[in-house]
Protein: F-box domain-containing protein
Amino acid sequence: MDLPALLPDNVLADVLRRLPPCGLAAARSVCTAWRTAIDDRRLLRVDLLPHSLAGILINFPCTSITDFFSRPSTDPSISGKHVDYLPESSGKRSWSTIIGHCNGLLLLYHYVLNPATRRCDPLPPEPILMETKDRYEQWYLAYDPTVSPHYQVFLIPRFHPMSSRGDQIDPVRERSEWPPSPCILNVFSSAAGRWEERSFAREGEPAGSTIADMRLDQRCCPGRYAVCWRRSLYVHCQTNFVMRISLSNDTYRVIESPPGAKGDRYHLELLLGKSEKGVYCTLRRGDYSFQVWLLEESSCRTQWVPRHEMDLLALFLKPNPESTRRVGSPKQHPHGPWILQDIDYYYEYNEEDYYEYSEEDDEEDDMGTPLQDEELEWSSEASDDDGMCDCSSNYDNNGNARDTYDGDVSILGFHPFREIVFINYDFRRGLAYHLNTSKVEDLGNIYSESLDCVPPNGMHIRSSFPYTPCWV
Structure:
């Protein structure tokens, strides 16, 4: 018997209206009638869902606390200083580095945290690996509040390189395919409250890689990310294929990387992310050239489609005549529309001198007038020249022209709802590159005082996560 059909629509809606947001999210997954009643009457408030970008969480080298790069207009209750409300253990605050983000929830090694609501869930001890010398497991978070109030944490195997100590290996095992079918993964479910071994059957073709191939791909930075999109978790794996894990039927599918992504693994960095139209990736080709690809999926075909080519070297060497701004060093232009909280420096080095943003700082900012709120909402046309910056570095400190650029450039991630790529510009500025116009916005100083003690060869961003608050 179809119980929802026994209730008139208005009565069902009145009952559902009494549920809290988490309850409404759970009710949407019960049946089509309930989902229709909730969606048609907009009972689940959109403003509570992760539909806006608050900033970027950044893990700098040699730091233990994740930093937060955001606009000052971000809700004051949202802060990167999550260490203030993490539980304490044995008299010492048990902070850690953020290792994942998904729709407003943050993943730490022992907690899942919502900075907007300040809810912090401890995770039980993860299963002990039997082959700790052979492999390790990377943690990934899957959460969609429009589908369910519950989240899952996946442990995805990664393989260590072969030891120079001559450890015994099984050649037959080294030649075995990875991932196998079925693929056994450890998964934590907040609904069950425990870790479980789950079996995932493969759909489609294998990756064509072996365990021995996995060992050859040991890139550390930037990290290998995952994307939660349409009830699937897309995970960037060793050898640059993507593993699409279904969150509804315990299956997985291997998605090959864009053409050319299986060459020199030390120079062809692939970075996975979510943006306006779904799953994207950037593919680094050389020091300053990046390709942007969009994943198109249909019932009969899955393929990467080229979306844009970013030539950042040309950008840095060619002045922008339309701009009144020029990117300089952090000391020359300490502020901007966005502010780096410099949290690690605050806790580890000099708490008394920790810098807090104030509106008066804008009066002293020689970068020009800060962007207004509507500009910070990322006009897709990026037509306001005040928001555009001149990134050219074709003049040295003496004003002499030069034709080379030797600074560091890396990708911080994608804007979740606009076709914009965030860029780390030589640890000096955070930039927003608009794919539709190839124009660039200067967001502000991204240099952390904690980097003063980092040697030049250690200057790299370990990982970064665009953060979307969720109030559910």
